[in-house]
Each structure stands twice: as C-alpha cells, then as structure tokens.
C-alpha cells in the first residue's frame, strides 16, 4: 500500500495537512503528517533546531519506504533526509517548495528569487533565533484563496520558525540524486513566486511537474486536487 509522509513548511505544523490526509485515506493510501522539531506540539527549543535535526526527525518517523512530501521550506529537510537515507524514500514530492541546490542555503535561494513578496510579512525575534509571520498579512501572503474558517484555523496555529536550518547550506550528492522527484507548482503563489518555482525546476522532465491554480497553501485552498496529484505521484 502506498504510504505518504507529509512535511510542513515554515511556521506551520502537521495541522496544516488536516484536509489532505482524509482525501488520501479515502483513496486507500496510508498517510501521516509530523511536526518538525520546535513546531506544532514538538517541545524542542528553537535554539536547538538544525537542518540535520529536521532530517533526522523525518527519517525517525519512517519504518517502510514512503513518498515524502515537503511544502515550501520543507524542500530542504526532505532533500537532506534523502541524502542521508535514500532507501527509506520511494519518491520526493515538492509542493511549491524550494528545490535545493547543493552548497546553497534556503536563505541563499530566497535571495536569488526575482521577487521577495513575503519579506514584509516576516517579523524577526529579538534574540535573532527565529521569525514569525505578521498575523495581519498572512491572509494576503499565504491564504488569499482559502475560506474564512481555514484562515482562522491556520492563524491560530502558526508559530515561530527557527532561522538556523534555513541559513545552513545543504550537502547533496548521488544519494539524493538517486531518488525520483516530482514538483507541484502553485500558480497564484504570493510567497515563493510562481516564476521562481519554474526556474528551480527548469531542467526537470515535464512529466515530473504538475500545477495547481491556487495560493501557497494548497492543503487548505485545494486539498482534494492536491491529494489527487500526490496519488498521481505514487502511480
């Protein structure tokens, strides 16, 4: 049976997949979502979180090989996990995510984007360890096509994001390259520009790329459509 492990992006938690998991289960797939260290209900202190710790948390949640799905920032930790243990991963699926380049950090890649639409919504902590999203701006930046209920649900659960994992250059080699990959571009994305998603995957085979006409939060804006594309990736 196909099994999915869903990994959230910055400031989110396993909660963001609440509408995708039932759709996958209804289709007969096994699917789980986890909180990365310091996110959701995980108690890890923000200052202790590293990119390597993210990868180890993902691998620790895998018993049998899974299709590993990463949203946004999670493109980095799912890739790091694949480099560490490719045998645990049937395929990587990037959902409007950073598709890493070896030797670069997420911060490096964000700065290389043609636009920085999310920058004015980021509030850095006084100690410099983390950042959060400005609650007055998240609807426009992340959830503009989501229901009022979904936006309220998300805003009540967004938390701080450790900066160190995003400032750490990633090491990728043949182990990572051996894992099959797919990408889902979100055409109305106001966080990672849609044109940058296209740039990051410009040399990927066309049949490994899908699109959704929605915001940066397809798990709340178009959960059934997203689940359908994930099932297609499994096929």
Automatic annotation (TrEMBL):
<protein>
    <submittedName>
        <fullName>Alpha/beta hydrolase family protein</fullName>
    </submittedName>
</protein>
<dbReference type="GO" id="GO:0080030">
    <property type="term" value="F:methyl indole-3-acetate esterase activity"/>
</dbReference>
<dbReference type="GO" id="GO:0009694">
    <property type="term" value="P:jasmonic acid metabolic process"/>
</dbReference>
<dbReference type="GO" id="GO:0080032">
    <property type="term" value="F:methyl jasmonate esterase activity"/>
</dbReference>
<dbReference type="InterPro" id="IPR000073">
    <property type="entry name" value="AB_hydrolase_1"/>
</dbReference>
<dbReference type="GO" id="GO:0009696">
    <property type="term" value="P:salicylic acid metabolic process"/>
</dbReference>
<feature type="domain" description="AB hydrolase-1">
    <location>
        <begin position="4"/>
        <end position="227"/>
    </location>
</feature>
<dbReference type="InterPro" id="IPR045889">
    <property type="entry name" value="MES/HNL"/>
</dbReference>
<dbReference type="Pfam" id="PF12697">
    <property type="entry name" value="Abhydrolase_6"/>
</dbReference>
<keyword id="KW-0378">Hydrolase</keyword>
<dbReference type="GO" id="GO:0080031">
    <property type="term" value="F:methyl salicylate esterase activity"/>
</dbReference>
<dbReference type="InterPro" id="IPR029058">
    <property type="entry name" value="AB_hydrolase_fold"/>
</dbReference>
């Amino acid at each position: 049976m196909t099994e999915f492990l869903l990994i959230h992006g910055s400031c989110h938690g396993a909660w963001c997949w609440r509408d995708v998991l039932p759709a996958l289960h209804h289709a007969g797939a096994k699917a789980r979502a986890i909180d990365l260290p310091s996110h959701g209900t995980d108690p890890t202190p923000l200052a202790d979180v590293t990119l390597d710790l993210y990868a180890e948390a993902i691998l620790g949640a895998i018993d049998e090989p899974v299709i590993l799905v990463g949203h946004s920032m999670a493109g980095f930790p799912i890739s790091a996990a694949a480099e560490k243990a490719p045998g645990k991963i049937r395929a990587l699926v990037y959902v409007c995510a950073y598709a890493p380049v070896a030797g670069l950090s997420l911060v490096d890649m964000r700065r290389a984007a043609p636009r920085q639409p999310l920058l004015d919504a980021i509030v850095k902590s006084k100690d410099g360890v983390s950042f959060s999203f400005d609650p007055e701006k998240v609807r426009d930046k992340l959830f503009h096509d989501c229901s009022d209920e979904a936006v309220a649900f998300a805003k009540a659960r967004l938390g701080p994001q450790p900066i160190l994992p995003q400032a750490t250059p990633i090491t990728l080699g043949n182990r990572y390259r051996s894992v099959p990959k797919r990408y889902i571009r979100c055409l109305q994305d106001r966080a990672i520009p849609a044109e940058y998603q296209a740039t990051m995957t410009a040399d990927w085979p066309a049949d490994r790329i899908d699109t959704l006409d929605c915001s940066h939060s397809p798990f709340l804006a178009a959960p059934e459509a997203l689940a359908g594309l994930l099932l297609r990736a499994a096929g």
